[in-house]
Fold:
Amino acid sequence: MFAFKLVAFLSLFCLVHGQDYYVHGQYGAVGNGVADDTIAIRNALAAANHSNGGRVIFEAGVVEDITFTNITLYNVYTCISADMNFTWSGYNATSKVPQFKNINFNNVVCQNSTYGWNLNGLNNNPIQLNTNNIQLNNVATPIKCSNAYGTCDSNTVKPSCPVSTSGCVASG
Structure:
């Protein structure tokens, strides 16, 4: 079961500019930490795929214990993006600021992108993530990062892990 506490994930994979697909408001995700929102997420991803791109947005709440493995992205604006620097008031949201906890990326390849990483946590609510075997190829700005922590395997994340001195994920 792919149950998780969600409704925040503001486009961990930000696809090409296009239509936005809201997991909670349009596809019925509950995001209460109990309900299995897998079907809503899959339907939003399928809709973006069938329209040749767009952003799948988890509006606000908690995204926790998710692993992305064996993914290849082509011609996207941002390969991996988690941004908490906003508030959400739509769809009767109970949590106005998204949270990302224990998000794992393994074996991700990104070709031709404007940004590789866009990790933007908050001082009192940082992003938690772990990365292994990430390849960013032909990416204009590889790293944009603040207030994120976790692990990054510097031997397998290329061109580099986010720098720990910038308040970002530590290399290890």
Q: What stands out?
A: The chain is about 10% helix and 45% strand.
